[in-house]
Amino acid sequence: MSAVRYSVGIDLGTTHCVLSYVDLESPEDQMVLAVMAIPQLTGPGTIEEKSQLASFTYLPHAAEIAEGSTTLPWSAKPEHLVGEIARNLGSKTPIRLVASAKSWLCHAGVDCKQAILPADAPEDVERISPFAASKAYLEHLREAWNHRFPEHKLQDQDLTITVPASFDPAARELTVEAARHVGLHQAVLLEEPQAALYSWIEKSEGDWRNHVKVGDVILVVDIGGGTTDLSLIAVTEQDGNLQLTRVAVGDHILLGGDNMDLALAYTIKAKMEQEGGKKLESWQLQALTHGCREAKEKLFNQPELAGMPLVVASRGSSLIGGTLRTELTRDELNRVLVEGFLPQVQVGDKPVVRPRSGLRSAGLPYAQDAGITRHLAAFLSRQKDATIELGHTPAENASFLHPTAVLFNGGVLKAEVLSGRLMSILNHWLQSEQAPQARLLQGADLDLAVARGAAYYGFVRKGKGVRIKGGVAASYYVGVESAMPAVPGLPPEIEALCIAPFGMEEGTEQELPNEEFGLIIGEPVRFRFFASKIRRDDPVGTRLEGWNDDELEELDEIEITLPEEGRMAGEIVPVHLSSAVTEVGTLELRAVSNRDGKRWKIEFDVRNSEESN
Amino acid sequence: MNTYTIDLSLRPTTFDLWHVCLAGTAAALALLLIVVLISVLVGMRRCRRAAVTDAAPVAPVPKPEPEIKIVEKIVEVEKIVQAPAPDPVVLKEATPDAALQLLSLLQKEARFIDFIKEDVSAFSDADIGAAARVVHQGCTKAINEHFTLAAISQDQEGSRVTLNKGFDANSFRLTGNIVGEAPFTGTLVHKGWQVTDLRLPKLTEGHNAKIIAAAEVEL
């Protein structure tokens, strides 16, 4: 077996995966982070190396692909088509395309190991599970690495995989499990906004200490292709050294750059249909989305342009006659993207939530309010007191947490129009409460920062450089029936019992020996499971009798089945609960027998498959 | 019976015909031997040289790739090798796959073949302009993705430049009033282009590069 030579970081993104690595044998001051070019099929028969692997899986029909045209350098016939080829083929055959598998991992109410994707595929299309799709991307990355570094197999290197800070324990567990399934047992998890900050620290080459000071609160805004992720990281001091502590994370918001391109395309489509009186077909909308993305980038990069012509070419071989043309003007761009996604709102505003219709649709729970600034306002307002325990004293009458610095991540924020707008709205809020302006931390690589930060994290784990303290991102509770006489017709009252406090650190364990449950051997027992991102002071064992809706968020149920193992089925075993945060970064809940100390794992991933039907 | 006494100190005072013939034969034989020896030497030398040239193409045994065939990525340019008169002129064969690949890329990204194959005379400039945008945007993308281009001369076009003795005649072409000796001074008409990096896709073994764009059938 070869020794650990590299620290590898994988950004397992919603739309793209990036792999970055650093040679651990190089001296600290000459550390070079590299992003690996990933060989992938771009079409049948052609292989190209790209720095990003598109996180798409295509499930081809048997007659669709010629024999031998999906060969990869390491495999004559890969099991799944992933990467650029999947996106290309899927753009014309969406019923066979698996996209956004990562968002499904964190989707309450579906069983992620059930073959449910593509969600709207007809009956005879073979489906795969979101878990299998994630596995396929990791497997491709593993093979690409091992092909490039046959002497240093990926399974032997330090490996960090990033997840959104808003991932719940079940989604984190699934990510680690997917890595284990493809032989990457050593993988540890890192939250994406933290990875972005690590990358910024690494890029500053030690200079970061001059850019932040004790008392700073850094707001990390990560707007990726499919999700928006928010985190707050506080700067404190210990023994004369600067310390970073992640104090809060936002909700899982399914809103990102792809939504913006789509919004532009629909705006232009409406305009064209009004002018031309002809309905656009779906392939034309697709081409329009593509064109809008390019026009948007041009308009953002060249402020002197008033508009960009858009053309939608015909599908046939006659190009000149069949081409539709229109224009994306700067007004439309500003109206749709700037006003639509970054509206000028007050900090007290909340995202609009329409009640979901009674029928649960099979799709992803996309954010209902596209106003990213409203989500940001709600996040900062909820986390008003997030830094009190670190000794920060928030300004009097502050209605929201006042960040002093901002770090951006994600390709969307490369556009200065958007990042500037976000900064100006935030500073407007700060100004209205007489707080100093927040400054933008410069020099971040918005596209590749997460993967680079993840690779750098391997360095940090070796004790070199500053480490961001984090722990679990929320407090977790199980629902227990309160001991009161049953009232006919009413469900028994539920109390929430805190089993893992906010910020519980990696490698620690907490037990609740005084809370005893009787578990029946051989029968699955389910607990309701809750998380709170704002109740940060509840110690383990706290029982909450009542709570507001925005205080506790209900997650999927958790389940435990005690195996028989020599006992009688039906026997009742008294147990108490214990929680641990693993070094990997996942939460583990266990039931511990009060009699002999035997432990059983409580499973997160028991999402009701019957509910999703 | 005659007896012959051999006296090596004896020198003939007169040469008869017999002895002249004998001496002539000996000289002729010696000459023949020298000629044969020389020709053998020359022959051996040639053989060795031939052996070296024969061995050359065999030496770099291509590493057997297990599954895919990596098609040569260089677009080869016809190049005249300056050689002494007797050797034949060697021309490099351009590999057709790379050329086909480039066409396929341009068609995929820029609808290049569709555009070229269409009769433009029937259309208005506005229509052609709209289509040209598709082609221009796509070509830009395809070329930027697969080639890194750089100007050969960093000077401003139209400025005066001087080429010193020994300049690379491949990179700089002299035109107009070419007389005298280097250094040459003249006006930079075109800054030139060169490909500094090239990233053509690799092709799988069974891939038919001649299919530039597959016919599309929607079900």
List keywords for this structure.
heterodimer, A: 613 residues, alpha+beta, Nucleotidyltransferase, domain 5, Actin, Chain A, domain 4, six-stranded mixed beta sheet, B: 219 residues, two-stranded antiparallel sheet, 4 helices, 5 strands
Topology:
The complex is a heterodimer of chains A (613) and B (219).
Chain A: E1 6-12, E2 16-23, E3 33-35, E4 38-43, E5 46-50, E6 53-54, E7 56-58, E8 81-82, H1 84-92, E9 97-99, H2 101-105, H3 130-148, E10 158-163, H4 169-181, E11 188-191, H5 192-203, E12 217-223, E13 228-238, E14 241-249, H6 257-276, H7 282-301, E15 307-312, E16 324-329, H8 330-341, H9 372-382, E17 405-409, H10 416-432, E18 439-440, H11 449-461, E19 468-469, E20 475-481, E21 494-500, E22 508-520, E23 524-532, E24 543-544, E25 553-561, E26 572-581, E27 587-593, E28 599-602, H12 609-612
Parallel strand pairs in A: 1-10, 10-11, 12-17, 14-19, 17-18
Antiparallel strand pairs in A: 1-2, 2-3, 2-6, 4-5, 7-8, 7-9, 12-13, 13-14, 15-16, 20-21, 20-23, 21-24, 22-26, 23-25, 26-27, 27-28
Helix pairs in contact in A: 3-4, 5-11, 6-7, 6-8
Chain B: H1 17-55, H2 96-110, H3 112-117, H4 125-146, E1 147-151, E2 160-163, E3 184-187, E4 193-198, E5 202-203
Antiparallel strand pairs in B: 1-4, 2-3
Structural commentary:
The complex is a heterodimer of chains A (613) and B (219). In chain A, strands 1, 2, 3, 6, 10 and 11 form a six-stranded mixed β-sheet that branches. Chain A is globular. In chain A, helix 3 (130-148) packs across helix 4 (169-181), helix 5 crosses helix 11 (449-461) and helix 6 crosses helix 8 (330-341). Chain A folds into four domains: 6-190, Nucleotidyltransferase, domain 5 (2-Layer Sandwich), CATH 3.30.420.40; 211-255 and 378-466, ATPase, nucleotide binding domain (Nucleotidyltransferase, domain 5); 257-341, ATPase, substrate binding domain, subdomain 4 (Actin, Chain A, domain 4); 475-612, no CATH class. By secondary structure, chain A is an alpha+beta fold. Chain A has twelve helices and 28 strands. Helix content of chain A is 25%, strand content 27%. The longest helix of chain B has 39 residues, at 17-55. Among the domains of chain B are: 18-58; 153-191, no CATH class. In chain B, helix 2 (96-110) packs across helix 4. Chain B has a two-stranded antiparallel sheet with strand order 1-4. Chain B contains four helices and five strands, in the order ααααβββββ. Helix content of chain B is 37%, strand content 10%. Chains A and B meet through strand 4 and strand 5 of A and helix 3, helix 4 and strand 5 of B.
